[in-house]
C-alpha cells in the first residue's frame, strides 16, 4: 500500500469514527476519539490537525478541478478561435477585395467630379505620372486596375515655343518609327541601381 492510499484510509477512518467516545484508563474521563493523537511515520498528529488537513486538501482539489475545467474551456475556446480565424482569413480576403474594389469605384467617382482633364478622356488618374518635361504627364493606361499596361499616353500643353514643338515632333517620329527601347531601372534602399 502506498502513502497516498494510507492517508486516504486514515482520513476515512477519522470521518467514520468522529463520534466515537472512549474512557481514559488512567483518569476515567470520557473523551472523543478525535481528541486522541495518531502516530504516523512522519510524527504525531491530532485528529483536529488531520481534520484541518483534510479540509485544506478538499479545497485544493476543488481549486484543481476548477483549474482543470478552466484549462479545458481555454483550449476548447482557443480551438474555436483558431477555426474562426482560419475561416476569416479565407473569406476575409474575398470580402476585403470586394470592399477595396467598391472603395476604388467610389474614389474614382469623387475624383471625376474634381478632375476635368483625365476623367473626360477616360483616364484613371492613378495611372498618370507627372514628369513636367518634355511633356507634362505620361499615362500608363491600365496599370492600376488591370496590373498590366495596355498603352502609353503622353499628355501635355500645346507647345509654347518652336524648340518645344521640335522636341514633341521628334518624340512623335521616334514612336511612329518604332525606335523605342525599354529599360527598367530599380534603386534599392541602399542606393544600389540595377538595370533590366
Break the fold down into its secondary structure elements and pairings.
Layout: H1 3-16, E1 21-23, E2 30-32, E3 37-40, E4 43-46, H2 47-114, E5 128-130, E6 137-141, H3 143-146, E7 151-155, H4 162-177, E8 185-187, E9 193-195
Counted up, domains total 2
Q: Please, what is the average pLDDT?
A: 79
Percent strand equals: 15-25%
Poorly predicted parts? none
Our measurement of the CA-to-CA distance between the termini, rounded to an integer number of angstroms, reads 82 Å
Give an account of the 3D structure.
By secondary structure, the chain is α+β, with helices and mostly antiparallel strands. The chain has two domains: 1-88, no CATH class; 116-195, no CATH class. The chain has helices spanning 3-16, 47-114, 143-146, 162-177, and strands at residues 21-23, 30-32, 37-40, 43-46, 128-130, 137-141, 151-155, 185-187, 193-195.
Quick gist of this model?
The chain has about 200 residues and is of the alpha+beta class. The protein has helices spanning about 5-15, 45-115, 145, 160-175, and strands spanning about 20-25, 30, 35-40, 45, 130, 135-140, 150-155, 185, 195.
Amino acid at each position: 500500500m502506498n502513502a497516498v492510499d494510507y492517508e486516504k484510509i486514515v482520513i476515512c477512518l477519522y470521518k467514520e469514527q468522529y463520534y466515537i467516545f472512549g474512557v481514559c484508563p488512567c483518569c476515567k474521563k470520557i473523551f472523543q476519539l478525535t481528541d486522541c493523537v495518531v502516530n504516523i511515520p512522519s510524527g504525531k498528529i491530532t485528529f483536529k490537525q488531520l481534520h484541518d488537513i483534510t479540509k485544506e486538501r478538499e479545497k485544493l482539489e476543488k481549486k484543481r478541478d476548477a483549474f482543470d475545467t478552466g484549462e479545458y474551456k481555454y483550449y476548447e475556446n482557443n480551438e474555436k478561435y483558431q477555426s474562426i480565424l482560419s475561416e476569416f482569413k479565407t473569406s476575409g480576403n474575398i470580402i476585403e477585395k470586394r470592399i477595396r474594389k467598391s472603395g476604388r469605384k467610389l474614389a474614382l467617382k469623387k475624383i471625376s467630379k474634381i478632375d476635368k482633364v483625365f476623367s473626360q478622356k477616360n483616364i484613371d488618374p492613378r495611372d498618370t505620372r507627372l514628369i513636367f518635361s518634355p511633356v507634362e504627364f505620361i499615362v500608363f493606361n491600365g496599370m492600376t486596375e488591370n496590373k498590366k499596361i495596355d498603352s502609353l499616353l503622353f499628355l501635355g500643353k500645346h507647345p509654347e515655343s518652336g524648340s518645344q514643338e521640335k522636341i514633341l515632333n521628334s518624340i512623335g517620329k521616334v514612336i511612329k518609327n518604332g525606335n523605342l527601347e525599354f529599360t527598367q531601372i530599380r534603386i534599392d534602399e541602399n542606393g544600389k541601381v540595377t538595370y533590366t
